């Protein structure tokens, strides 16, 4: 099969032939139709996070995918050959950017009706990160939420899902983005938009009960915008996030990282919201598999609006 391969951390991603995998027990083999780019892909492939997510070479990067089942593994139930599915591959070995991928039943789900393969591939990792940050770390209920929620990076991959989820939960949503993306973020459900390019961006903003930082912003500034018992979560945590509870043991405010745990159950929650018309995927751009390096460069620019899709 064809796959994107790197032979070292210094290597450029390139197309190469790899042995075709077979379905393992409790898994399905999927013919990949599309994948999506997440920062973890290029960070792992280039060694930026090798202390806790080392790449094993030859390395096939990528975690999100959508495609069709071509083989059902021993003991696997609930899926048949031809079923359209999507997943975030579990573990840290990656492997999505290939023509075939083995997907464990603990993470794979049928694609929502009406989604194309690109949209379905763009949802899992970023969508679950948004969901788990809001629901599990910040503590918002799925319905009947109250309070003011600030989403930093509201037009990005995780952020644009977080805006929609927080709105569906019932919170008052304020999205942080550049002025040129304000209309999009308001259309996704934000009640207000903060233009971070303005010097007075947060002037006259009331304190926030919850802040979800999807870009790794200025921790001191953002925590200062919280209510006395407000909660802050970041899906781009640096050392300061982990040190904050130790250095501020008597603070009423909460500062926590979001550490994704990929599950079929949470992907099902997202799929249900898609089916209900409460969640949609914004596609920034699409690239063919051979142009994955250009897609990574687009991701590294930090200016993506929504998700980047790779057509396989």
**First-last Cα distance:** 12 Å
The geometry reads as globular
Q: Profile the largest sheet.
A: 7 strands, mixed
Give me the CATH superfamily of the largest domain: Medium-chain alcohol dehydrogenases, catalytic domain
Mean pLDDT: 97
CATH topology of the largest domain: Quinone Oxidoreductase, Chain A, domain 1
At CATH level 2, the architecture of the largest domain is: Alpha-Beta Complex
Task: Determine the number of helices (DSSP H or I, runs of at least 4 residues).
Answer: 9
Structural Rg: 19 Å
Proportion of beta-strand residues: 25-35%
Give the number of domains.
2
The residue ranges in which pLDDT falls below 50 over 5 or more consecutive positions are none
H/E topology pattern: EEEHEEEEHHEHEHEEHEHEHEHE
Q: How much helicity do the residues have?
A: 25-40%
Give the strand tally. Answer: 15
Structural class: alpha/beta
CATH top level class name of the largest domain: Alpha Beta
Protein described:
- This protein is an alpha/beta fold.
- The protein has two domains: 2-123 and 281-311, Medium-chain alcohol dehydrogenases, catalytic domain (Quinone Oxidoreductase, Chain A, domain 1); 133-257, NAD(P)-binding Rossmann-like Domain (Rossmann fold).
- Helices cover 26% and strands 28% of the residues.
- It is built from nine helices and 15 strands.
- The strands form three sheets. Strands 3, 4, 5, 6, 7, 14 and 15 form a seven-stranded mixed sheet that branches. A six-stranded parallel sheet has the order 10-9-8-11-12-13. It has a two-stranded antiparallel sheet with strand order 1-2.
- α5 links the parallel β9 (172-177) and β10.
- α3 (124-137) packs across α4 (157-169).
- It is globular and about 60 Å long.
- The chain starts with a strand and ends with a strand.
């Amino acid at each position: 099969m064809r796959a994107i391969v790197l032979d070292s951390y210094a290597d450029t991603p390139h197309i190469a032939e790899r042995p075709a995998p077979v379905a393992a027990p409790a898994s399905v083999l999927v013919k990949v139709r599309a994948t999506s780019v997440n920062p973890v892909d290029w960070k792992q492939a280039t060694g930026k996070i090798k202390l806790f997510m080392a790449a094993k070479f030859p390395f096939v990067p990528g975690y999100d995918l959508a495609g069709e089942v071509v083989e059902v593994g021993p003991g696997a139930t609930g899926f048949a050959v031809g079923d359209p599915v999507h997943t975030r591959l579990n573990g840290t070995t990656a492997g999505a950017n290939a023509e075939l991928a083995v997907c464990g039943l603990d993470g794979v789900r049928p694609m929502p009706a009406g989604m194309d393969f690109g949209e379905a591939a763009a949802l899992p990792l970023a969508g679950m990160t948004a969901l788990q940050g809001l629901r599990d770390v910040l503590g918002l209920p799925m319905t009947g939420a109250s309070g003011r929620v600030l989403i930093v990076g509201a037009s990005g991959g995780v952020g644009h899902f977080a805006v929609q989820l927080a709105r569906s939960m019932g919170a008052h949503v304020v999205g942080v983005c550049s002025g040129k993306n304000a209309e999009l973020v308001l259309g996704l459900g934000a009640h207000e938009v903060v233009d971070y390019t303005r010097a007075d961006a947060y002037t006259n903003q009331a304190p926030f009960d919850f802040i979800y930082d999807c870009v790794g912003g200025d921790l001191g500034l953002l925590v200062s915008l919280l209510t006395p018992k407000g909660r802050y979560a970041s899906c781009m945590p640096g050392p300061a996030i982990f040190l904050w509870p130790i250095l501020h043991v008597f603070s009423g405010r909460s500062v926590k990282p979001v550490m994704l745990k990929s599950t079929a159950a949470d992907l099902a929650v997202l799929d249900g919201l898609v089916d209900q018309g409460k969640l949609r995927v914004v596609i920034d751009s699409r690239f063919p598999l051979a142009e994955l390096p250009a897609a990574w460069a687009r991701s590294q620019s930090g200016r993506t609006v929504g998700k980047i899709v790779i057509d396989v």
